[in-house]
Design goal:
By secondary structure, the chain is α/β, with parallel strands linked by helices. Helices cover about 40% and strands about 15% of the residues. It starts with 7 loop residues before the first helix and ends with a strand.
Amino acid sequence: MSQLPKTLGELRRSQWPEERIAERSVRQELRENLLCKMEKGEALFSGLHGYDDTVIPQIINAILSRHHFILLGLRGQAKSRILRNLVAFMDPQIPVVEGCEIHDNPYRPLCRTCRDRTAAEGEATPIAWLARDLRYVEKLATPDVTIADMIGDVDPIKAARGGRNLSDELTIHYGLLPRANRGIFGINELPDLAGKIQVGLFNIMQEGDVQIKGYPIRLALDVLLVFTANPEDYTARGKIITPLKDRIGSEIRTHYPVTLAEGMSITSQESWTARDNKKRVEVPDYIREVVEEIAFQAREDKRVDKRSGVSQRLPISTLENVLSSAEQRAIRSRDSTVVARVADVYAAIPSMTGKFELEYEGEIRGAENIARELIRAAVGKIFTNYFASANFQPVVQWFEIGGELKVPANASSAELLAQLKKIQGLFDHLEGLGVKAKDDSAIVAGAAEFILEGLWAHKRISRNEERGYFADARKTNESRDPREPSGRTPRRQFN
């Protein structure tokens, strides 16, 4: 690549002529580059799953239409990630007047400083190059944001140091929006922005310029405005004022993963599971599915506030905590392999309870109890997916004749496996989980424990903290043939 021009004169004689730089807006630049990527068949957005047929086509339409747009969706739906991905549709770099606070176009400078400089230095005006990553400015809207923060204001210190009047244009302190000139300005949680601040965005969206308080000037900024908002927050914390909403070209709704596979792909991408230890680490697929299903169950549970939503951060944090619990157990029991088990999902409850808001009925039950019930429902659903037609009657009968199994919290995989082998028919179903009896003891023990947990989730056997897994005596008596003797078989217990 040839050396980039360093002065305005070199720029005029280069491959960046005035008609390309001066007449091409940011939104036109995004449109052209997006079309180019689509024609080449390149990937448009990285790290997004489940939006290929819903959200992404709508974003493409908005960019091709050169619209300012807003993403509406509940928390944890990758809205901020989408906005930050937009820089991929910009040129790798663009020329700016060197040292300019608002990245002025060398051919058509806006600020007084750059106009004076180009007039004085002419073709020798120094040029700098701005990378695409520096052309994205993001602001989290909060009630304390002022118009000076967003647009700009008089800077008395600058006036005093330069010996200028406060009305002098050279004393302007530019806000975030002018500093995003020739780039993308993203505002997260737009309803939290005070109404009078939202009014300050009118001109840039309609007339294409902004007015700075105290100065008789209008800056014709070149910027794409993009927003995010939670639609359920409009009445709780604020609202998008109607005139501003009317000026937003496209309103795009995001959503949670529709299928378990989509959710698992997001969780796998975002969670930290590649641990830096010497032991082999494994999270079986059925455990990953249970963790993801917990979020799906929570989103459907009537005791969980649907207006707040259940963020995709729930399965991400839970999976990380599940693996940490497995690591801890493996170290204490001196297992050679770290394998996540169902017990580790329950140990990860602290990573779940802060991820959902409860309705009145849920508040009465308590967040921890709700989390336990969600885990049980998730295990039951995944268990059915694997063993819809399997016959577990021999396993259930073993408990009905008095068998019990209590799993010590810090038992090694070998110790647990030795107890599990006593349950008749249990290991006949391991292949349903893709596990063989000759596999690593930690993998086999985890699979067998999942089967028992699945039977408990479907109320085929019982479980509590004191006794572990056992048969409910009432159910056993109800299922007993009345012609059999009423005497009970002595209970067998394995600890």
